[in-house]
Amino acid sequence: MPNKTLIALGLAALLSACGASKEAPSKETKQAMLVVKEDLVTISSSRVASGPIISGSLEAKKQADLRAEVSAIVVQVLKDNGDKVQAGDLLVRLDDTIYRQALISSQEAERAAQQSFDQAERQFNRLKALSTSGAVSTQAREDAELRRNAAQSELAAARARLAQDTQQLARTQVRAPFAGVVGNREASNGDTAQVGKALLKVIDPSSIRFEGFVPSDQIQHVKVGQAVNFYVNGSRDLMHEGKVERINPVADTSTRQVGVQVSLKDTKNLTVGLFAEGRVQSLTEQSLTIPETSLVQQGDHAYIWRVQQGKLNKVEIQLGTRDVQSGDFAIKSGLNEGDTILRHPRGILVDGALVSVEKTPANTAKSAMNAKPAVAPSAKKEG
């Protein structure tokens, strides 16, 4: 009997508790995620360009490596890296003592040879006139002619030595071959400059071009005149444009890649020697696109967060090619034109969560554009 009474009391208490839990209202509240129009992107069709990857470096088409043409001591280097020069400007002065003395000696030798020739010429002309009248023998006239010819040969040799010494003296002054800037100074005052020693490099900044390489299996898609978009190493936020100017007919023997030369649309703020990488725009198509910032990668799958009928949905999509200019991705499936997605999906987002789109106040439009992306609020439970 006591056991039955305890069981009855326990069942009564359990039923009472269940009834109380059913009658107590749930205090869990659902809070919608607030977004502004600037946080959303409307899917539309746009032009997508793609093509082979091209990588290489920036080089100057017009450049000169100035080297010592005579052996001498470097007396003065008048220009430094980055200095602008005009055609004919003196850049480096070498010690010209030996070459100046040699030139003086050659000038004196040329003068003496000229006098000897003049004298021999006059003697030959006199004997020639006398030979005509029979006053002198033919042998005397021929001897005078031989002396005249020998003097003429010595004069020619003296003039050749004079020209050579004049040129050697001129080579002690290294001048700019064209207008540009000094790209690399490799000599200092007091250096011993042997023949062939590098002194300075002069480049023409307006002749900078992109010299890159394209894989041999994709070179058939590259044609002269095609647009090229590329980025310089360390400056991915600034895109540069150019056009294919020349395609090398022979592949590189070590990499088996084909060289491509690209003329640039604008050479400002570009430096010779920087590494660059981009794409040749050989293929273009119309497709639905999304910005790269809206993409969520999870392994081999790609997702976006779509806002539809006030709710947030996680949608898997299939990506196409990436536009080489804007960086947007083409969409093969998963979205339709006119769909709205989050521009910057960040934080903890819940599939099916409520979304409230608010209008951006006029006085805070700029701050809204720079504001951090909205994050889905976590649900609160009140005890």
Query: Biggest β-sheet: count, sense, barrel?
Result: 6 strands, antiparallel
By CATH reckoning, the class of the largest domain would read: Mainly Beta
Distance between the termini: 41 Å
Instruction: Kindly report the oligomeric state of this protein.
Output: single chain
What general form does the structure show? Answer: elongated
CATH topology of the largest domain: conserved putative lor/sdh protein from methanococcus maripaludis s2 fold
Q: Structural class from helices and strands?
A: alpha+beta
- Portion of residues within helices: 25-40%
Work out the radius of gyration.
43 Å
Please give the domain count: 4
- The stretches of 5 or more residues where confidence is low (pLDDT under 50) are 1-29, 374-383
- What is the typical, i.e. mean, pLDDT? 83
Strand order of the largest sheet: 3-18-22-21-20-19
Task: Write up what this structure looks like.
With 383 residues, this protein is an alpha+beta fold. It has four helices and 24 strands. It has four domains: 33-47 and 285-370, conserved putative lor/sdh protein from methanococcus maripaludis s2 fold (Beta Barrel), CATH 2.40.420; 53-61 and 204-281, Efflux pump adaptor protein, beta barrel domain (Elongation Factor Tu (Ef-tu), domain 3, Beta Barrel); 68-93 and 172-203, RNA polymerase II/Efflux pump adaptor protein, barrel-sandwich hybrid domain (OB fold (Dihydrolipoamide Acetyltransferase, E2P), Beta Barrel), CATH 2.40.50.100; 96-171, Orthogonal Bundle (Helix Hairpins). It has helices at 2-23, 97-133, 138-170, 365-370, and strands at residues 33-36, 40-42, 44-50, 53-60, 63-67, 72-77, 84-85, 90-94, 173-175, 180-185, 192-193, 198-203, 208-214, 227-232, 235-251, 258-264, 275-280, 283-290, 296-298, 301-308, 311-322, 329-333, 340-342, 355-358. The strands form six sheets. The chain has a six-stranded antiparallel sheet with strand order 3-18-22-21-20-19, with no helix packed on it. A six-stranded antiparallel barrel has the order 4-13-16-15-14-17. Strand 14 (227-232) and strand 15 form a beta hairpin. Helix 2 runs antiparallel to helix 3.
